[in-house]
Design brief:
Chain lengths: ~130, ~220
């Protein structure tokens, strides 16, 4: 008896290297990009800001009491507005991106810095609808 | 690796049109992640038309029958907002390339809510890395053991149905682990590194994650 179907053993070995996995991989396996080395010219404040917000300068910084771990991330905010026009209710969603910085200091203090003033314990901004009036 | 067919599942899709034309497609599943009726990841391969039909069915939010290697069956759907990634595999000695498709649910991609994190293996370091990157937590890879213990104490890690992997789901919003980190650093359980600089997170390759586990091979045999 000869098996003429698909060679499952060969396919199983080849699958992790397929194009489909390469596309889906970043969703399933977290990877972090970091930059190291000395830049050709000194960086301006703007350059550093861009690198920070891109998450390329996450790490351990500071000295003594100010020693901390910093991590930046981009957060999507979705604001939902409702308009009533007679019997019709129109729901509008406005999306915008902002940056968020979380810090944890060596002495145990933790901070979350955002674009807006937020209180600790507030729901995560990402994908959370914010009810607001137009 | 031998006996791959014993480690794969089967996906079945039945469609009945108004003209009473029945279509039935059966395909092999290499990887699957699901939680009762909700599928989060389906990885299949086959010919062009079958993969095309299943892709269309995923976007139509159709229901599929999944048969696990153990023989258990389940009706599942990927739900609204699922996306498909397609590609081809050229097999030496065969004329036509094998088509393959990976479908991911909206929840797994983190578009619906960020309170659930998925990993393909219950490895503490991988769970911690995924959680930290998903929520943007200021943390170090060395803190994995302590933090995974905290997650387990709070029953936040739950195993999911899987084919070709051993998926787990971590149910925690960004604020909870952030508070545990704060308490851990304050209590001295989470030590700070001696030197300043970037944090090097361990990198895991897909080949390593998707390699059949020894238990799985023994089970199939």
């Amino acid at each position: 008896m000869i098996y003429r179907g698909l060679p499952y053993d060969v396919i199983e070995d080849m699958l992790p290297g397929s194009a489909a996995w390469k596309q889906a991989g970043p969703t399933l396996l977290a990877r972090e990009d970091t930059v190291t080395g000395r830049p050709i010219t000194p960086l301006h404040g703007g350059h550093v800001g861009l690198l920070c917000t891109a998450g390329l300068l996450n790490g351990v910084f500071g000295q003594g009491e100010d020693r901390h771990v910093a991590r930046w991330r981009s957060v999507k905010h979705v604001a939902e507005f409702q308009e009533v026009d007679g019997d019709t209710k129109i729901v509008r969603r406005r999306e915008n991106w902002s940056n968020e910085l979380r810090l944890i200091y060596a002495h145990g203090k933790a901070m979350k810095l955002t674009e807006n003033v937020q209180t600790r314990g507030e729901a995560d901004a990402e994908c959370a609808p914010e009810d607001g009036n137009p | 690796m031998q006996n791959a067919h014993l480690r794969m599942g089967i996906l079945e899709y039945d469609r009945h049109t108004e003209k009473k034309i029945a279509t039935r497609i059966r395909m092999r599943i290499t990887q699957y992640v699901g939680e009762s009726e909700n599928a989060h990841l389906i990885s299949i391969f086959g010919n062009d038309s079958d993969v095309g039909a299943i892709t269309a069915a995923v976007y139509e939010q159709a229901r599929f029958k999944v048969t696990f290697p153990t023989g258990n069956r389940r009706d599942v759907t990927l739900g609204e907002g699922a996306t498909c990634y397609r590609g081809g595999l050229s097999i030496p000695g065969r004329k036509h390339a094998v088509r393959r498709m990976i479908a991911l649910s909206e929840e797994l991609r983190g578009l619906k809510s960020l309170s659930r994190t998925f990993t393909l293996r219950p490895e503490p370091q991988e769970i911690w890395t995924n959680l930290v990157h998903w929520h943007g937590l200021p943390a170090l890879p060395e803190w994995a053991e302590v933090m995974i213990r905290a997650l387990e104490e709070h029953n936040r890690i739950s195993p999911l149905d899987g084919i070709g992997c051993f998926p787990v789901m971590i149910t925690a919003s960004a604020e909870e682990p952030f508070e545990w980190l704060e308490a851990g650093v304050r209590g001295g359980e989470l030590p700070f590194p001696e030197k300043n600089g970037p944090i090097r997170w361990p990198r895991t390759s897909l080949c390593e994650v998707l390699r059949p586990q020894t238990d799985e091979i023994e089970q199939a045999a």
